[in-house]
């Protein structure tokens, strides 16, 4: 189900369209915002659903300083696809991943002495050094060493063979909140650790803390690098619109079928939608199997011919239905679930991932990341 012709994956009419020009634009805006600091572009989780390989190639061509992934296997995939810029793995690596980390020249976070020591042993045996950044847990309480342990931890790592401690970092828990007092507490804790080490003569090539939200609200004098994620893909924090970011991803499909139903008839599983009058129902080949959340049932809208229509009835695995009233919608008409579309008079309507996230009671990260592999990515 959900194909508009042919039996090949690239014939599917449901597509995530990725605007690489918008990606480059967003990177340029972030460079301006970062005021000369290096950029670690986050491409974890398939580049937030945008396609890790093509996005990474574009970022590498655009001169990004480093790429950030969550897991070692993501870094290996990028190396296998010809990505040569530094790649940092931002979650702790397990002992059985040490070999691929060393062999693929991946930078890792240092959170546990024994894990780092194992990495160093392998690197030293091969006549090289594994690069690590010490991860300080200033309040996220997910990974990292406690601030009161960090200074001794750095000195202990410096004595390990095969280890090059090039950086120090932390992660903020509330950077998506405007004027967050807790963010400032975390920043001060991190600043104290860095200052204590600096006073003892221990400095770092890379000092980083700011993700998208923090780039907008945290004073960056301490840091040499920032880690933009969702802002790269077009979504700046809602509390600051000083820069115009351009959404990179559009989710598009076509009308698969149309039918007239009578007043009182119901639509989809559970009969959750009852037609208040005679009307036309358009079926589109998108469902939760594509990452379009079932939780959008009764809440979402889409664009057809530049007009907004409600998605009605329970969202199915492969399809969902749209109430187009009495409008002349036809099989093959273009449908936009995320993105922009003009009507016959040239007026533009839009739906972005923030809108979809609000309907689904979640965050835009989850909306773009959830788009599944069966939805082809088309790069423009």
Explain what you see.
The structure is a single chain. With 380 residues, the chain is an alpha/beta fold. It folds into two domains: 20-233, Alanine racemase (TIM Barrel); 249-379, Lyase, Ornithine Decarboxylase, Chain A, domain 1 (Beta Barrel). The protein is 29% helix and 24% strand. It contains eleven helices and 20 strands. The protein has helices spanning 20-34, 44-48, 52-61, 72-80, 98-103, 113-125, 147-158, 181-199, 212-217, 353-360, 364-369, and strands spanning 15-18, 38-42, 66-69, 87-89, 106-110, 130-135, 163-169, 206-208, 225-226, 249-254, 257-261, 266-267, 273-274, 279-284, 301-304, 307-312, 320-325, 334-342, 348-351, 377-379. Helix 6 (113-125) links the parallel strand 5 (106-110) and strand 6. The longest helix has 19 residues, at 181-199. The radius of gyration is 24 Å and the shape is elongated. The chain starts with 14 loop residues before the first strand and ends with a strand. The model has no long low-confidence stretch (mean pLDDT 94).
